[in-house]
Amino acid sequence: MTQYLIRLCLSAVIASIAVFNIGDAAAQSVLIKNVTLIDGTGAAPVTGASVFVEDGRFSRISTSAIATPDGVSVVDGTGKFLMPGIIDSHIHLPGGRAGAGNRQMLINRPVALKSMAAYLYSGVTAVYDSGNNAEFIYGMREDERAGRVLGPRIYATISLIAPPEGHGCCAGGTVVHDYEDGVKKLDALFKMKPDLLKFTRERRGMGPVGRNIPLLETGLMNKLVAYAHENGVRTTVHVSEVELAREAIEAGTDAFAHTVYLDDANANFASLIAEKGVILSTTMTRIEADTTFFDEPLYVATIPEETRDEIRASERFNGSPYTGWLSSLRPAIMNNIKVLHEAGVILAMGTDRSLGPLPHQELEVIVESGIAPLDAIRMGTLNAAAYIGVDDEIGSIEEGKLADMLLLDADPSVDISNTTLIHSVYKGGVWIDRAALDVPANRH
Ligand SMILES: [Zn+2]
Predict the structure, then answer these.
(1) Are 51 and 97 members of one domain?
(2) Which one is predicted more confidently, 113 or 101?
(3) Does residue 73 lie within any of the structural domains?
(4) What does the pLDDT read at residue 26?
(5) The domain containing residue 216 runs over which residues?
(6) Could you tell me the distance, in angstroms and rounded to a whole number, from the CA of residue 339 to the centre of ligand 1?
(7) Residue 252 is part of a domain; what is its CATH number?
(8) What is the distance in A from the centroid of ligand 1 to the CA of 431?
(9) Which residues surround ligand 1, an ion (CB under 5 A)?
(10) How far is ligand 1, taken at its centre, from the CA of residue 24, in Å?
(11) 62 pairs with which residues across the strands?
(12) Is 291 part of a structural domain of the chain?
């Protein structure tokens, strides 16, 4: 308690208001009436819908009037559009990325809290952390679940699994040497309850110059994926090549952390993924080399100017060989996403970029790839929930599910960029006071 009070005193007034909001609004019921409902399942928008939220969940959805008890707050949804809260299936929450030395010392919770505020402000109500400093992300996840901090729901791998010197080994990853070692280390991770365990399967590394890095041996990966499944834990794999992806499918992986970005996804490969029901995170903004979207209102509102300047100046955007390499990958990756979608693969919107408003950009690139906006919305809601394995609880506006939802001022099924025109954000039925969140737009 003392620690809590100290933290409260040290925080900005804005942050403390946000903390009190968590409790204050928790018990409210809300009726949103006469709204156009886009439920996240890919179904056509339903006009004149009423959505009643009780105890944090959708209790009734109807196109007829819903009778509600006295004291329920009623929101007139006329001319507005209701969709599920957006879910990013691939982030690395800032504030915990480990480097050499003492990882614990590198934990920066204020950075994490600001990032979480930016997500929520942007209508992102859940994220999957695809690899981070274990102590950090586990702590943030616990704090969010206990209502001690305000942000999107956090799901996490806890720590990703890599071979010695392999991709992801050295930034908070869990290095496995052999099966016995792997079992011991996975057992330790299972105690922290990973939501979806992540392996890496990468021999090139990201960048224009291919490096040869050690790969998790196929037999070892097969056994460790099976061991995770025996323990009731689903798995995802970082993979960038078709051949390695096929091996991961044979190992029984449940998901891919990226689209294959170094190869063309041919029809044969696409139908194999579809048949196995492996869910793939899109992560196309990972290869984005365009910076113009950083000037759009939601980015200006949520990312400090100096951070946007830093990102613009980074190798990703500054016209270096790396930028050129990213741009050169773009058409093939967009085509891959379309081929996979048409083959019936379940695609989950994910950015791998860890910036609050980026999911909107990812949705735009998905649509630019030739996918219908309603399908893109499903990727950013229900499919992303399925990727994490929580689609029975969140991801769509259906009776019984947690009421994570966005009220929009314009129709995203007509123009996907309308997902940025956010009127209100609700998480678990609780209205989020966006004007009180600790983002640049509110720091005057
Ligand atoms: Zn990642």
Answers:
(1) no
(2) 113
(3) yes
(4) 53
(5) 86-388
(6) 22
(7) 3.20.20.140
(8) 30
(9) 130, 352
(10) 35
(11) 50
(12) yes
Same domain, 348 and 281: yes
Contacts of 58 (CB under 8 A, 6+ apart): 51, 52, 397, 398, 399, 400, 401, 403
Contact 119, 151 (CB under 8 A): yes
pLDDT at 209: 66
pLDDT band for position 96 (cuts 50, 70, 90): confident
What is the CB-side half-sphere exposure of residue 58 using CA atoms within 13 A?
A: 27
**In angstroms, what is the span from residue 132 Cα to ligand 1's centroid?**
9
Which one, of 428, 416, 409, 398, lies nearest residue 49 by Cα?
398
Does 276 share its domain with 130? Answer: yes
Mean pLDDT of the chain: 89
Q: How far is the CA of 129 from the centre of ligand 1 (A)?
A: 8
Is there a single domain that holds both residue 148 and residue 193?
Answer: yes
CA of 351 to the centre of ligand 1 (A): 8
Tell me how far apart the alpha carbons of residues 398 and 396 are, in angstroms, rounded to a whole number. Answer: 6
| CA separation for the pair 316, 289 (Å, rounded) | 6
Give residue 206 CA to ligand 1 midpoint distance, Å. 11
Q: Is the pLDDT of residue 24 over 60?
A: no
- What pTM does this model have? 0.92
- Per-residue pLDDT at 105: 52
> 236-252 pLDDT, tens per residue?
999 888 889 999 999 99
- 373 and 431 in a single domain? The answer is no
Q: How many angstroms is it from 36 CA to the middle of ligand 1?
A: 35
Q: What is the CATH number of the domain that holds 402?
A: 2.30.40.10
Query: Domain tally for the chain?
Result: 2
* pLDDT confidence of residue 349: 98
Ligand 1 centroid distance, CA of 90 (Å): 6
One-letter amino acid identity for 379? Answer: M
Is a pLDDT exceeding 60 seen at residue 18? no
How many whole angstroms from its chain centre is CA 159? 16
Same domain, 196 and 217: yes
- Domain shared by 196 and 59, yes or no: no
In a domain, 224, yes or no: yes
Q: Give the Cα separation of 237 and 235 in Å (integer).
A: 7
Strands (E), 230-381: 235-239, 255-256, 279-281, 347-348
Q: Are residues 436 and 384 in the same domain?
A: no
Which tens digit of pLDDT belongs to each residue from 41-92?
A: 999 999 999 999 999 999 999 999 999 888 899 999 999 999 999 999 999 9
- Residue 353 Cα to ligand 1 middle (Å): 8
Domain membership flag for residue 393 = no
